[in-house]
Amino acid sequence: MKARGRMLHYIGDKSFDGPSGTRAVVFEEEWAAWQWVWYGDAAGGVCPDVQGTRGGETHSSINNPHRLTLLVPPAIRHHLAPRAMAPACLLLPLLLLPFAPGPAQAATPARSPSASASSSSTSVVFQLQGDVYPTGHYYATMNIGDPARPYFLDIDTGSDLTWLQCDAPCQSCNKVPHPLYKPTKSKIVPCADSLCATLLSSQIPNNKQCPSPHQCDYKIKYTDSSTSLGVLVTDSFGLTLRNSSRISRSLTFGCGYDQQVGKNGAVQAATDGLLGLGRGSVSLVSQLKQQGITKNVLAHCLSTNGGGFLYFGDDIVSTSRAMWVPMARSTSGNYYSPGSGTLYFDKRPLGVKPTEVVFDSGSTYTYFAAQPYQATVSAIQAGLSKSLTKVSDPSLPLCWKGQKVFKSVSDIKKEFKSLFLMFLKNTALEIAPENYLIVTKNGNVCLGILDGSVAKLNFNIIGDITMQDQLVIYDNEKGKLGWIRGSCSRGTKYIISSFTCVQGNFLTSRFSSISVSNPVFSVLGSGLSPKNL
What 3-state DSSP class applies to 43? Predict the structure, then answer.
């Protein structure tokens, strides 16, 4: 049995921290001062793991820099349980990726000569924190500046510009988790910069003029009426690449010195700013593409239990199982859109005309335009039993209480049916009850689909609640959107292994499509939408 031309030697069975009754087949090898041990689950219930130890340090397969691909050889098959050889897990590239430093850490990444000199693109992975309720968003930790300092950034596929609340000095800022970013004069982007012209024209068409030639001023307004006013700056971002090397790259972002969100200083913000992941050239993933670091592809996986992950690049996950739809030109802005979708409830059409859909990780909840919203509410309420009654709850506009307090959506999901948005080529987005309901701290169940007409929206926004437990892929290189349903649990080792297990000769994944008997619903998945208008 070989890995990169090296032989791994069988050293016998060993206890394994897995399901009751499992045992592991263990191999080890002395390689580059590391002792590599491969754990194969004899019962076939868990994907194997690779662990490396050196002194007191241990790395799992997530952090394996050697990218081993391991298969159990025939010579040791007799050591396994009778059904063990059907599943052998291939440790595909995603399994071997290190995550970015955790929120509490700020490391200054050393430049990797090989990574810096390489002209080929790679991929970057970030672990996410947050949830839909009660936090209201998902965020990544970005290490910015020299020396690097950590900042929590709300991930937003509905806007382009990344910005931090900053001391320039600050005119109106909220209380944030970390000390305000403070730029130096040398970091300010001049008006003549090409990204400045792009940003200005995106705010006001054909506007390429700055009030001052020495800096690039911006003002962004979001659908919730919040705004950010600031100047563009350039500073170092620390990034951990797929091959475990760390690099530092100079990227352009906003220094927001005037944020209008609540009363000045009265709101405790959970994040330091926003991570713009939209389609424009100002977005972080577009800048990384321009510098040859990654392809212009991003994906996220948001867990219903909180947390998840975000990645830039196209070589982390095998996406052959993904459900794809072409990106459509949004009539509402430069947003990620699969086009117009026809709305169904419990596989029956709701009788409203197809409405444009956009994907927006910056929106906590899903928003439907006036007609789709009213039709959805009517259909849901018509199907509820008398055990549920309407109740006022400060969390959301439409809520119900039961005969007993609810602890989770699983307690009540049988009362509700799935919604579907049908796109081109019989490709649909399933919105299961757990993707449109929350249970509040008061024990009530509330509808996480809101009336978009309140925000003067004439299109549908698919927010975080609907994208939970989906790997959602935004491929700007090929102009398509994709999704794969499955768990986005916080246990990163098992999240990642769920993408890569092989059962027999077939690649299987917990992120598989759902098919139903009606041929119209041959492919089901998830969706997305915008934030700033």
Answer: coil
